[in-house]
Each structure stands twice: as structure tokens, then as C-alpha cells.
Specification:
149 residues, mainly alpha
């Protein structure tokens, strides 16, 4: 989800333009319409408008994210298809994906924070042990010097 360094929709829009980016999303939606073969199909205008809405609301997603949303939809990750595919359904998939993505990002951030705190604690313990060992060596040296007098 976060490992690939593919461009975001915003970057693609900036580089290639709005029409190209909407066309990329529309191609995926058209593929879905053909894949699901539902009775109530999306028309060309619905596909274009849904593409525009996806780009407007989810411009921060990468190509990998977009591909993942649509592939998951095909596999039934977002629920069964009941003879209907429209913009509202597609946008609900993106909303669910965004929520999952944010939760995963928060979990990763929390784990990274905990790792850094543990590393700092380990370093403090190590430094403390080193200081104690030095102090013990000084004490031992003083004792040996005092007993040899």
C-alpha cells in the first residue's frame, strides 16, 4: 500500500493534464462495467462524471492505490454486486479504501514511534550500564590504591 513509489493522481494531472487523468480512471470504470455485466449499467456520461469525482476527492492516491481499489472490487472485497454499478457504489469503494489506508498509516506511524522510543530507551540503558561500569572501575581502582598503601 505504501511501499511502491508510483505517482499520485495529482502528479499525473499536473504532468499530463486533467483529461488524461480522468481518462485513466474512466478506462478502469469501463473495464469494471464490462467485468460485472450488471443489468443497470453506467452510461458514458456517468463514467466521465464518476472519474471526475474520484479525481476531485482522491487526487492524493497513487496509481497503485487506484489499481488496488478496482482489483479489490472485482474480487468482491467491498461486497457483492447486485445488478447495479454506478458512481455512488464506486465512490463508496474509494471511501472504504481511504479509511483503510488512513488506519494502516496510523498503525505504521504508531509502530515506528514505538520502535524509536524503544531504541532511545535501549540506548539510555546501554549508556547507564557503561557509566556504571566506569564508576565501578574507578571505585575498584581507588580501593586497590587505598589497600596497597
Amino acid at each position: 500500500m505504501f511501499e511502491l513509489k508510483l505517482p499520485s493522481l495529482a502528479t499525473i494531472r499536473k504532468t499530463y493534464g486533467e483529461n488524461f487523468t480522468e481518462g485513466y480512471i474512466a478506462t478502469w470504470i469501463t473495464n469494471l462495467v464490462e467485468f460485472f455485466q450488471v443489468g443497470k449499467r453506467m452510461g458514458e456520461n456517468q463514467i466521465i462524471e464518476t472519474s471526475m469525482l474520484v479525481l476531485e476527492d482522491y487526487y492524493m492516491l497513487t496509481l497503485a492505490d487506484i489499481n488496488l481499489v478496482f482489483t479489490r472490487a472485482k474480487k468482491g472485497h467491498y461486497g457483492e454486486m447486485y445488478d447495479r454499478l454506478d458512481g455512488a457504489i464506486i465512490l463508496s469503494w474509494f471511501r472504504k479504501y481511504w479509511e483503510e489506508r488512513c488506519q494502516e498509516a496510523a498503525s505504521i506511524s504508531q509502530r515506528e514511534h514505538e520502535r524509536k522510543v524503544k531504541a532511545a530507551d535501549d540506548q539510555r540503558l546501554s549508556n547507564g550500564r557503561d557509566e556504571m561500569a566506569k564508576a565501578f572501575s574507578r571505585y575498584k581502582k581507588e580501593i586497590l590504591q587505598n589497600t596497597s598503601k
